[in-house]
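Worked problem 6 (solution included).
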Amino acid sequence: MPHTTLVSTSPSTPTIHALFEPQTSTWQYLVVDPTTSTAAIIDPVLDYDPTTQTISTTTADALLAFIAQKGYTISHILETHIHADHLTAAAYLQAQLLKSQATFSTAQTKIPICAGHRIQHVQTLFAQRYSIPEEEYRRTAFDKLFQDDEHFTIGTLDAVALHLPGHTPDHLGYMVGDNIFAGDSLFNPDIGTARCDFPGGSAESLWASGRRVLGMAPETKVWAGHDYPPAGRAGVVVPFATVEEHRRMNQHLKDGVGREEFLRVRRERDAGLGEPRLLHAALQVNHSDD
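Solution. The predicted structure is:
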């Protein structure tokens, strides 16, 4: 699997491993505190074959092997939102790490799976669609629901759960140092932004979230949740671009694009999109995470 590493340059900046899962075009991230080798996993992938309707753990097992090779201790499994285009490996990783991570604090029985508190709204929408009992998804789905812009720590690193709605109402980005793990809000500049046509999605909210991100310092790195490289990149996947690059080149949000133009382009684009290939399998698995 394609893999990019950005090595920490100081005790206050993370080492970042970006691991690309090509079947769903998903970037998974390991965000590592260089002082303690404590790390968080962001948006891990569980393999699913829609033809045979079988689940496998090849990608997740490769991630576990990489973590063991590096000697990292995992403190959090972070979801940016409920995904409609891939199955999450969060519950599988939590169970496997509980068995293997002997150095993890004995005061904590499991590594928390985390998301934004508005995910409960999205759970309700899709639990009704798939007839999943409320007691099932409320009890088992997530261990920690962040409030908007809540601070937490990854080892000695400060992190913030930024509320970036639009693609979904619960959507979070995670900011660590001068890095924002933006999930399905901003993609790379030559792609633009994510769709807003799922239940609870909002082009207006995505405009506001995009302007919030582009209001950060120019050197801030925006790490994408997916990459679908256009022809000009010849299939080369790229995990991040800087805020300055987005301001100059993001085809939906670059400087000079106004709100009304963005809304028009985003809505026209969404109207022509088909549903994600793994939509029904992903939503049934991901919102219960069981």
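Discussion: The first helix runs from residue 58 to 70.
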